[in-house]
Amino acid sequence: MATEIEHKFLVVDDGWRAGVERAVAMRQGYLVSDAVRSVRVRVEGDSAALNVKGAVVGIARREYEYAIPLADAAEMLDELCGQKVEKTRHYVRHAGHLWEVDVFEGANAGLVVAEIELAHAGEPFVRPPWVGADVSHDLRYYNSQLAVHPYQDWR
């Protein structure tokens, strides 16, 4: 079984921009999303995937991802998914770890979060100076939640 171990932080300034290795636009929507599971369709650049995630236990959860044809993903997003999440993901290396900085667009514009995936829950990592509050346990920041309760509606 695949397990995702991830920490998520708010980004406090643009210091990360100097270290960007690459960036990719993403568009995603959810076929299923509830407290126990989610099934996501994502177009990432010129590829697409179907992703299945289980319930979160601490910072870990089951995750399975399968490549699908780009045309199928586009059709699912347009016809089967409700609200979408659009963002650009920037890959930034810091102190030996790869960080993913997501700059959200559309209804979630203004939100910038950084994520780090770890090999195991106790793996040490150095927090970059551009990350702030740890929001790993705040469900509002999950992409599946941002699709139905976008950041612009929080204010």
TrEMBL record:
Active-site positions on this chain: 30
Domain CYTH: 2-148
SMART domains referenced in this protein's UniProt entry, alphabetically: CYTH
PANTHER family in alphabetical order: SLR0698 PROTEIN (PTHR40114:SF1)
Protein name: Adenylate cyclase
